[in-house]
Amino acid sequence: EVAKEIEEPRMMESEVVQYKSVRDVAMECGYDVTWDNETKSVTLVKGENVIVLTVGQAECIYNGSIKVLK
User: Fold this and answer.
1) Each residue's pLDDT tens digit, 11-56
2) C-alpha gyration radius of the chain
3) Given 8, 13, 41, 44, which is the most exposed site by the fewest CB atoms within 10 A?
4) H-helix or E-strand containing 65?
């Protein structure tokens, strides 16, 4: 399932913030992207690097290790 693009950028003070999907950014960086609708997670693979991000989680799995997202 592909995230919908935001039609109008969100305004924060004097800055304009634009959103781009994880899929778009990852593919631009050369990652293969797989969405798991059951677990609501995306897996990014490039060479030996594997990143798993899950919707609503403040951590990810990077090459088998749990990392806290900031």
Assistant:
1) 555 567 677 889 999 999 999 999 999 999 999 999 999 999 999 9
2) 14
3) 13
4) strand 65-68
d(CA 64, CA 37): 21
Query: Higher pLDDT residue, 70 or 57?
Result: 57
| Phi then psi dihedrals of residue 26, to 5 deg | -65, -45
Q: What is the pLDDT of residue 44?
A: 97
In a 3-state reduction of DSSP, which class is residue 66?
strand
Q: Which amino acid makes up residue 5? A: E
DSSP labels, 10-63: EEETTEEE----HHHHHHHTT-EEEEETTTTEEEEEETTEEEEEETT-SEEEET
